[in-house]
TrEMBL record:
<keyword id="KW-0325">Glycoprotein</keyword>
<dbReference type="GO" id="GO:0005886">
    <property type="term" value="C:plasma membrane"/>
</dbReference>
<dbReference type="InterPro" id="IPR039391">
    <property type="entry name" value="Phytocyanin-like"/>
</dbReference>
<keyword id="KW-1015">Disulfide bond</keyword>
<feature type="domain" description="Phytocyanin">
    <location>
        <begin position="145"/>
        <end position="248"/>
    </location>
</feature>
<feature type="compositionally biased region" description="Low complexity">
    <location>
        <begin position="253"/>
        <end position="275"/>
    </location>
</feature>
<feature type="region of interest" description="Disordered">
    <location>
        <begin position="253"/>
        <end position="283"/>
    </location>
</feature>
<feature type="signal peptide">
    <location>
        <begin position="1"/>
        <end position="25"/>
    </location>
</feature>
<dbReference type="InterPro" id="IPR003245">
    <property type="entry name" value="Phytocyanin_dom"/>
</dbReference>
<dbReference type="GO" id="GO:0009055">
    <property type="term" value="F:electron transfer activity"/>
</dbReference>
<keyword id="KW-0732">Signal</keyword>
<dbReference type="Pfam" id="PF02298">
    <property type="entry name" value="Cu_bind_like"/>
</dbReference>
<dbReference type="InterPro" id="IPR008972">
    <property type="entry name" value="Cupredoxin"/>
</dbReference>
<protein>
    <submittedName>
        <fullName>Early nodulin-like protein 1</fullName>
    </submittedName>
</protein>
<feature type="domain" description="Phytocyanin">
    <location>
        <begin position="27"/>
        <end position="130"/>
    </location>
</feature>
């Protein structure tokens, strides 16, 4: 029973995170991707983070995917967006999923009008540009990347447990010079840089560094495993922990120098970009699953 529930949760989490990870240029944007349109668990930063991953061009369609009766979506002015005032919306859609065609260049603002949905983070601001600017240039080979930890989820106690951040890290390649951005609500989370021992045991009584204000940006300056967690009680045990493997900056191969292998073997290892998060050895799985299920039910109750 518990195993089945756990397997189901893992599948859902993997599907959600893998889906978010694949950002394909297309004209239909499903707001929040698989998260849909709701009060996001990580607060207002969620849809801002999502919007940053998209390019909105005139003619594109926004799809707000929500359950009719539980959510709605209003297009409002900037003032309405800033103050969460939906008194005179430009338009209001109460049936989900709801489509908006982005038919002019400019800024668009959307909020949920129900209860306290907007102040709790159900709000989206986007900028729509002209298509005549042409497609954005392809990314250059590999300049430093800034990763938003957890993407739209942010840095929280993940509703589905620690699989959230191991899944997030799974398909990513971290290279010296890249940065991690941790988004969270000040006063409710922090970011602790910890040792492997502290990561494994969730004993964060001694940490390397703690950052308490959001957003926290950490530039990865050394190769090898890097471990992050939280000093808040129980957060680590409930899954707020991240382990990543950072590899060396690859030197641009020059045709004449091809015979000389890089001095550091780390960067050239074929397994360097592989799975980065080993399972913690000393956590009690049943406790984590119980915690995840409890949190999930809290999250579900909170979102409805
Ligand atoms: C909308 O959400 C439902 C339920 O989560 C999902 O089955 C459906 O595929 C989503 N639609 C889109 C367009 O993402
Ligand atoms: C909300 O906006 C309307 C006009 O759009 C305005 O009359 C009203 O005073 C605003 N309410 C608040 C609480 O600011
Ligand atoms: C909303 O847009 C999607 C994607 O273009 C389309 O499949 C769907 O039929 C549209 N729904 C409505 C109600 O127009
Ligand atoms: C946590 O680690 C500190 C030192 O890093 C140690 O003194 C303490 O006993 C540990 N606590 C537990 C509960 O293991
Ligand atoms: C967190 O606090 C810092 C410093 O007080 C502030 O600059 C930052 O904007 C705050 N972040 C959020 C998300 O409130």
């Amino acid at each position: 029973m518990t195993t089945k529930i756990r397997a189901a949760l893992v599948v859902v989490a993997l599907a959600a995170l893998l889906h978010t990870a694949v950002v394909v240029a297309q004209t239909t944007h499903v707001v929040g991707d698989s998260l849909g349109w709701l009060v996001p668990p990580g607060g207002p930063i969620a849809y801002a983070t999502w919007a940053d991953t998209q390019t909105f061009v005139v003619g594109d369609i926004l799809v707000f995917n929500f359950t009719t009766g539980e959510q709605d979506v209003a297009r409002v002015s900037k003032e309405g967006f800033d103050s969460c005032n939906s008194t005179n919306p430009i338009s209001l859609k109460t049936t989900g999923p709801a489509n908006f065609t982005l038919d002019t260049v400019g800024d668009y603002y959307f909020i949920g009008t129900m209860d306290r949905h907007c102040p709790l983070g159900q709000k989206l601001a986007i900028k729509v540009i002209d298509s005549s600017a042409g497609p954005s240039p392809p990314p250059s080979p590999r300049s430093p990347v800034t990763y938003t930890v957890g993407d739209i989820l942010g840095w929280v106690v993940p509703p589905l447990g620690e699989v959230a951040y191991s899944t997030w890290a799974y398909n990513k390649i971290f290279i010296v010079g890249d940065s991690l951005v941790f988004n969270f609500i000040n006063g409710t989370q922090d970011v602790a840089v910890v040792t492997k021992e502290a990561y494994d045991s969730c004993n964060t009584s001694s940490t390397i560094t703690v950052y308490a204000t959001s957003p926290t940006t950490i530039t990865l300056t050394t190769t090898g495993m890097h471990y992050f967690s939280s000093t808040y009680e129980l957060h680590c045990g409930l899954g707020q922990k991240l382990a990543i493997n950072v590899i060396a900056k690859s030197t641009t191969p020059s045709p004449s120098g091809a015979a000389t292998p890089p001095s550091s073997s780390v960067g050239a290892s074929p397994s360097a970009g592989g799975p980065t998060a080993p399972p913690p050895s000393s956590s009690a799985p049943s406790r984590i699953v119980a915690g995840a299920i409890a949190l999930l039910s809290i999250a579900v109750a909170f979102l409805h």
